[in-house]
Amino acid sequence: THARTRTRVNMSSAMQQISMRTAVRSSAVRSAKKQQQHRIRTVARAEYGASGTSFYTTTEKQDSYPSLENILDKHCADATLKACIKELLDGCADITEALRSALVTVEGTDNSFGDKQLSVDVIADNIMWDLVKSSPTIAYGASEEEPVMVKCSGSDYTVCWDPLDGSSIVDNNWAVGTIVGVWPKNTGTGDDGMLGATGRDQVCSMVALYGPRTTVIVTLDDGVYEFSYGCTPEGCQLPDGSFEPWICSRMNIKINEDSKIFAPANMRAAQDTPGYKALLDYYMDNRYTLRYSGGLVPDVYQQFTKNMGVFTNPTSKTSPAKLRLAFEAAPFGALVEKAGGKTSDGVNGGSILDVQINEVDQRTALAIGSANEVARFNDLVVKK
Questions:
Q1: DSSP 3-state of 197
Q2: Which residues of 335-366 are buried (b: 16+ CB within 10 A; e: fewer)?
Q3: How confident is the model at residue 89 (pLDDT cuts 50, 70, 90)?
Q4: Rounded to whole angstroms, how far apart are CA atoms 204 and 183?
Q5: What is the pTM of this model?
Q6: How many CA atoms lie within 13 A of 279 on its CB side?
Q7: pLDDT of 34 over the 80 cut
Q8: Residue of 191, 108, 143, 168 whose CA lies nearest to 360
């Protein structure tokens, strides 16, 4: 009996030792795997630059965020312009809600250029027209979908807009946007305040980005501000339990002079523009990060979130420029230059804001973004 008991004790002790050794080996294996995975990640970062080229956000959470009213009261001295901005933001909010429920289908109608209109194009444009025609501040309006100046019932401003930039990618459910430029009605040479004016005559421009969130960048008296729609951050709840429809998510945004992000449009032009091919080679040889979706709004808007970037769209004989000066280039140009960036007209190398608007549907080349990168575009592509 005692022998059997000692045998059971010895067997139990042996099993415990085996179990302990197995646990130690398992722990060692797990540790070795973790070290191996760490080495793989480290090698991957070193070889592919994954951590150094992703450019994740560095924006930290705030205890509270100022409301739209608070920011406009402090940074927009003109009461009439303040009212106009609020009306336009209401339009962006309405487009946001419409996009969440609308399917992307062919509408069965063509715009003035013969392009088939999508359901969301028509919805967004109708929202903007309803807003503009009923506004007490807007005297004239023109849409990229129908680039003809229309007299409205308001008193002060001429507004041009691209209701939904990115029609070719919206069916992918990629980010798209609305672009708006606001001119005083007395600029230029005509009654509508547009023809003969330049982008520098704008009193405000704004761009809405419809992605997972809706954000809008706006030029105010002292810089570029970003407003976010429908957000409910902690610390921003109103006394009645609701939230402000618009909060200011970033203030006085700046674009750095240098960049490692590039967004090259119209790359077909590189076939007969040696300077553009040389520029694209420079980006790749120097390991720039490509961030390009094919939508003007997200491809330029990223400059305000990453604080750097360059968007290039040159012109050539076989691949002419297609961007519209009044509806796209001038509004974005005002935003970028207000944030410390630079623009080029792609032909003479001067600022896009100094190009005179002689036709409502005038087209232009464009380079826009970090100042030193636009200067590089001028050196290689424009040769000026």
A1: coil
A2: bbbbbbbbbbbbeebebbbebebeebebebbb
A3: very high
A4: 7
A5: 0.84
A6: 30
A7: no
A8: 143
